[in-house]
Amino acid sequence: MWGVMDESADEPLSKLWGLFQSGDDLSWQHKALCSQTDPEAFFPEKGGSTRDAKRVCAQCEVREQCLDWAIEHDERFGIWGGMSERERRRYKKERRGRA
Ligand code: SF4
């Protein structure tokens, strides 16, 4: 979820700021569709709907890179690459099983 690069963003979004200083190649984030949308949709309250965020992700051309990044960095909150934290955990486990 790449619409959160504003240092003044509220928690937990501001916690993500440090991750952007990691030295990773994040050039793909400039194509992140979520940067043009409401970031709150990507961090719903517990039990809240993820539908709107996932709908945006489904249209995003960097979805694969985003998902890989979130899995690689063990991102625990929010929708990344069209998946919730639980879905990413399951996907990661399945991927490990295939390797
Ligand atoms: S896949 Fe979703 S969370 Fe990731 S950059 Fe695209 S819109 Fe944002």
SSE topology sketch:
Elements: H1 51-58, H2 63-72, H3 85-98
Task: Describe what this molecule looks like in 3D.
- Acts as a transcriptional regulator. Probably redox-responsive. The apo- but not holo-form probably binds DNA.
- Belongs to the WhiB family.
- This is Transcriptional regulator WhiB.
- By secondary structure, the chain is mainly α.
- It has one domain.
- 32% of the residues lie in helices and 0% in strands.
- It has helices spanning 51-58, 63-72, 85-98.
- The chain starts with 50 loop residues before the first helix and ends with a helix.
- Mean pLDDT is 84; it is low at 5-15.
- The structure holds iron/sulfur cluster (SF4).
Comma- or semicolon-separated keywords:
3 helices; binds iron/sulfur cluster; 32% helix
Helix and strand pattern: HHH
Shape: globular
Low-confidence segments: 5-15
Q: Helices and strands: which structural class?
A: mainly alpha
| Straight-line N-to-C gap | 27 Å
Name the assembly state: single chain
- Share of helix, binned: 25-40%
Number of E-state strands: 0
How much is the radius of gyration in Å? 13 Å
Taken as a percent bin, the fraction of beta residues is under 5%
Bound molecules: iron/sulfur cluster
Tally of individual helices? 3
Largest sheet: none
Number of domains: 1
- Mean pLDDT across all amino acids: 84
Cofactor: [4Fe-4S] cluster
GO cellular component, one term: cytoplasm
Family: Belongs to the WhiB family.
GO molecular function: 4 iron, 4 sulfur cluster binding; dinitrosyl-iron complex binding; DNA binding; metal ion binding; protein-disulfide reductase [NAD(P)H] activity
